[in-house]
Amino acid sequence: MFALAARNALAGPSRLPLPLRLPLPAPLAHLAPTSVSLSIPSRTFSASAPAADKLKSHSGTKKRFFRTASGLFKRAQAGKRHLNTLFSASRINRLGKTRYASPTQAKMLQKLLPYA
């Protein structure tokens, strides 16, 4: 029981005791961290109106979906990259055709691609 308590008091995987924090000697006391208040100067811009925040587009979505002129999101059909040697030719041709996102997916895509 005592050995277990002593082992838990030690730190780290090597079970070495924690190092002690000693006070700095007098000549080095000025190097100790102190609380400093920093003042950041205000910057003025010449723009007449404040700039609105920009929304970021999702990088992965940009590479996979494209918005058409009618507002639909175009995408590629999954499952044609590899492991398809056993597929019939008609299935491989069908997988090569373009697909469009469902209305539920389109709602999410509008948030991920705000400027598409």
Automatic annotation (TrEMBL):
<protein>
    <recommendedName>
        <fullName>50S ribosomal protein L35</fullName>
    </recommendedName>
</protein>
<dbReference type="InterPro" id="IPR037229">
    <property type="entry name" value="Ribosomal_bL35_sf"/>
</dbReference>
<dbReference type="InterPro" id="IPR001706">
    <property type="entry name" value="Ribosomal_bL35"/>
</dbReference>
<keyword id="KW-0689">Ribosomal protein</keyword>
<dbReference type="GO" id="GO:0015934">
    <property type="term" value="C:large ribosomal subunit"/>
</dbReference>
<dbReference type="GO" id="GO:0006412">
    <property type="term" value="P:translation"/>
</dbReference>
<dbReference type="InterPro" id="IPR021137">
    <property type="entry name" value="Ribosomal_bL35-like"/>
</dbReference>
<dbReference type="GO" id="GO:0003735">
    <property type="term" value="F:structural constituent of ribosome"/>
</dbReference>
<keyword id="KW-0687">Ribonucleoprotein</keyword>
<dbReference type="Pfam" id="PF01632">
    <property type="entry name" value="Ribosomal_L35p"/>
</dbReference>
<comment type="similarity">
    <text>Belongs to the bacterial ribosomal protein bL35 family.</text>
</comment>
